[in-house]
C-alpha cells in the first residue's frame, strides 16, 4: 500500500528536485502483476505514464507562461482567437474547439476581460450568442507568449522528432477511437 501512495503523491507533484532511484510506475506495474492483475498491468502503466507525462509537460508550459501571468487555459483561448480571421468567436464555439465546459470558457473570458485582453460583444446575427473578441493587448501578449513557448518548450519538448511523430499518431488514433473527433475528408498530417 505504501508504494501506491508514493505513486499517487508523485503523480500529483512537480518534477522531483533529484530523479527518483526507481521508476514508481514500473514498480506499480510490477505490483499489479504480483497481485494477479497481469491483464490490467500494462494499461495501468500506460494510463499512469500519460498522466505523469502530462504533469511534467504542463509544468514546463506553465513555467514559460508564468512571466506573462497566463495559465495554459488563458493562453489557449487567446491563441484560438488569434487564429480566427477577425479575432472573434462565439463563446460556444470556443468551448467546443477547446473541448472544455462552457463554464470554464466563461471563467477564462472573465479573467481575460478583466485584464483588458478580450472583450465580449453581442453576436451580430444571433441574439442568443455572445462573441469573445481579442483586443490588441491580447494579440500582442499571445504572440510574445507563443514565441516563448515555441523556443522554451515546443521546439524541444524532451524527445526525438521520430518519437514525437509516432506519439502524436498513437494519441490521435486513441482520441479518434474514443470519439474525440472524426476523420476529416482529407486528414491533416500527422493523422
Summarize this structure as a short list of keywords or feature phrases.
191 residues, mainly alpha, Arc Repressor Mutant, subunit A, three-stranded antiparallel sheet, disordered N terminus
Describe this structure in words.
The chain has 191 residues and is mainly α. Among the domains are: 2-66, no CATH class; 72-135, Winged helix-like DNA-binding domain superfamily/Winged helix DNA-binding domain (Arc Repressor Mutant, subunit A, Orthogonal Bundle). Helix content is 62%, strand content 7%. It contains 8 helices and 3 strands. The protein has helices at residues 2-11, 24-34, 38-66, 72-83, 91-98, 102-114, 136-154, 161-177, and strands at residues 88-90, 118-122, 130-134. It has a 3-stranded antiparallel beta sheet with strand order 1-3-2. Strand 2 (118-122) and strand 3 form a beta hairpin. Helix 2 packs antiparallel against helix 3 (38-66) and helix 3 (38-66) packs across helix 7 (136-154). The longest helix is centred in the N-terminal third of the chain and has 29 residues, at 38-66. The protein is globular, with a radius of gyration of 20 Å. The termini are far apart. Residues 1-13 have low confidence and may be disordered.
Topology record:
Layout lengths: L1 H10 L12 H11 L3 H29 L5 H12 L4 E3 H8 L3 H13 L3 E5 L7 E5 L1 H19 L6 H17 L14
Antiparallel strand pairs: 1-3, 2-3
Helix pairs in contact: 1-2, 2-3, 3-7, 4-7, 5-6
Instruction: Compute the CA-based radius of gyration.
Output: 20 Å
Morphology call: globular
Strand fraction equals: 5-15%
Biggest sheet record:
3 strands, antiparallel
Structural class: mainly alpha
Mean pLDDT across all amino acids: 90
- The stretches of 5 or more residues where confidence is low (pLDDT under 50) are 1-13
- Gap between N and C termini: 41 Å
| Strand order in space, largest sheet | 1-3-2
Count of extended strands: 3
Determine the number of helices (DSSP H or I, runs of at least 4 residues): 8
Helix content: 55-70%
Along the chain, the helix and strand elements come as HHHHEHHEEHH
Amino acid at each position: 500500500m505504501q508504494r501506491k501512495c508514493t505513486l499517487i503523491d508523485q503523480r500529483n507533484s512537480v518534477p522531483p528536485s533529484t530523479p527518483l532511484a526507481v521508476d514508481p510506475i514500473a514498480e506499480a506495474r510490477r505490483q499489479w502483476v504480483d497481485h494477479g492483475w497481469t491483464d490490467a498491468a500494462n494499461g495501468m502503466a500506460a494510463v499512469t505514464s500519460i498522466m505523469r507525462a502530462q504533469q511534467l509537460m504542463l509544468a514546463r508550459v506553465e513555467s514559460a507562461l508564468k512571466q506573462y501571468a497566463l495559465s495554459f487555459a488563458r493562453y489557449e483561448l487567446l491563441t484560438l482567437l488569434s487564429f480566427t480571421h477577425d479575432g472573434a468567436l462565439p463563446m460556444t464555439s470556443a468551448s467546443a474547439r477547446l473541448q472544455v465546459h462552457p463554464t470554464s470558457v466563461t471563467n477564462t473570458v472573465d479573467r481575460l476581460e478583466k485584464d483588458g485582453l478580450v472583450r465580449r460583444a453581442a453576436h451580430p446575427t444571433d441574439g442568443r450568442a455572445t462573441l469573445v473578441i481579442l483586443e490588441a493587448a491580447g494579440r500582442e501578449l499571445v504572440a510574445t507568449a507563443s514565441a516563448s513557448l515555441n523556443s522554451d518548450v515546443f521546439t524541444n519538448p524532451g524527445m526525438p522528432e521520430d518519437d514525437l511523430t509516432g506519439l502524436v499518431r498513437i494519441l490521435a488514433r486513441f482520441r479518434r477511437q474514443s470519439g474525440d473527433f472524426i476523420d476529416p475528408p482529407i486528414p491533416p498530417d500527422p493523422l
